Amino acid sequence: MATIAVYSVKGGVGKTTIAANLAWCAATISKRATLLWDLDASGGASFLLDVDPPPRQRAAGLFAHEQEPAALARATAWPGLALLPADASLRALDAALLKIGKKRRLARLIERLDSDYPRIVLDCPPVLNEVSAQVMRAADAVVVPLTPSLLSLRALEQIRADLADNHKRHPPLLPVLSMIDRRRASHRAAILAHPGWPVIPMASAIEQMATRRAPIGAFAPASPAAQAFAALWAIVERRLTRAA
What we know:
Layout: E1 2-6, H1 15-28, E2 34-38, H2 44-48, H3 69-72, E3 74-75, E4 81-84, H4 93-100, H5 105-111, E5 119-123, H6 130-138, E6 141-146, H7 150-166, E7 173-180, H8 185-193, E8 199-201, H9 204-207, H10 209-212, H11 216-219, H12 224-243
Parallel strand pairs: 1-5, 1-6, 2-4, 2-5, 6-7, 7-8
Antiparallel strand pairs: 3-4
Helix pairs in contact: 1-12, 5-6
């Protein structure tokens, strides 16, 4: 089993879009049973995969062992891909985790899912608190989406500084240039400055995910954006294989 977190301390960088598409690639391209765990109270990943929030707000209750995580997982329209949906209870998750006082609670919950899901993708909230600390202790790799802006690059440095200060051992980071428009000089400059970073383009097909409520590979598999997500997933899988 491997856990891939998609995380940034900055919002609006394409985090949820990347998480949903990577989970679809894991299930469809790699043919691995995959769980996308939506940890963001906004529920963006749940929406994109066309899974409405449950009538009862129970997502945060998992961390207090009120229910097994597998019991709340929901099937999606795509074979091999399940979703653990978010709800508004996750707004108080940081305080709940601090009260519980178990630094590896998320990691322990993930271990209880390993027999069902060889791949788990975490769509993480844009925070720097106990939730993100739990993610770093649980993940095998962290995908960090970055738009070509100074604020976005600053977010990467904040993550690196937090890892250096608070995590002696931590998963490898994979920065990804997101929402790239190659017609813009600043975007082309960002690609040249970071030649080893994967690139996800800005594309109308990606915007259509919100109206179709489906991963891009499901409705536009030949599009450059779908191919970019597939290439990113191939990089993630190779890194997981080397780490193993």
